[in-house]
Fold:
Amino acid sequence: MRFFLPLLVCLLCSCALSEKINFSSSDKSGEKKTILRSAWSKNLDPAYDSGNLPINLSSPLLHAGMLFVGTGKGQMIAYDAQTGKVLWKENDKGAYHATPVVYNDQIIYGTNLGRLYSRHYLTGKIKYAVDLGASIESEVVVHNGIAVVHLRNYQITSFDIETGKIFWAYKRSVPHLTTLQRSSKPLIWNNKIFVGFADGYLVNISLEDGVLQWEKKLSTSTKFVDVDNTPVILNNRLYINSLAGPIYMLEASTGAVLRQGDFSPSRPPFHFNDKYLFGTFDGELILTDFNLEVIKKVNLGVGGITNILLWKDYLVVTTSKGHVNILNPKTFEPVLQKHLGHVNSSVFGDVVASNGMLAVYSSRYRLYVYR
Structure:
């Protein structure tokens, strides 16, 4: 199950041969206060029985001065991003495992009940709702009006983004029982779809009809072989890894291996100053060139890296142990570290930034918005 990720992170932790950052040193306190100023926050935790802690896997969306987020109570809520005022709220009943997306005037998202929704982003008025038959695990990806999404039953479904009409479905048989059951967000490039599966394979399928073009096995392990990171493409070079395997650079058109790195990233690479910045399960930041040659390593020592992004000219790095780290982007030295408060807090979804706002949605269904 996806909920076993914190345990897996702990099991994968090891002593890293790299510089270890000490968070006791930081810039002047006055500067720290201006970097991460709280705008507002919400507790969106559902009611639950003791010992059955609900875990949030979804992410917020910032768009046009609004923030959209799915709660643990099965509600999709639109807030004013500046004030936290509720603009609209709709009851969908199911849980949310991915980030909503906006297409023209629509906000599109799905639930673990397999229901795909399209609503007007300003009002929440329903445009269409379609039952896809299995939990919707990935963000919807759109290209020229054609949308694709990854389902819990190892199926990629293609549909018309305007109407919800289904075009085709590609389903894969996954025999492995020891899997995190996570789902890779599809990548569309040159009218092809690149997506990883829980059987350890990356596949390339046609956007037009869902026909398999090629497949590449990325892991020879017998467990935790999931290819659940989103592939990244640059100049016909594709970067991807399985959960238990190293990072690969493949030729996008054929799947041929061009290079293999000696580390396993926890998230897709962050394109940074004409280089790639990776995070690992044992808390390392690894800076490489586009050929995966390592330039620099630092160890944050605060859990597995779950997000890397730029905000206010700083690097924001979140971890599986619930830390939000603010780093100097040139030196990776710490400027500020904030813990999200709850002992079981993690950040499994995407941290998002727009127009000077930063939104973090923790695994405990706490939403934090900073300015």
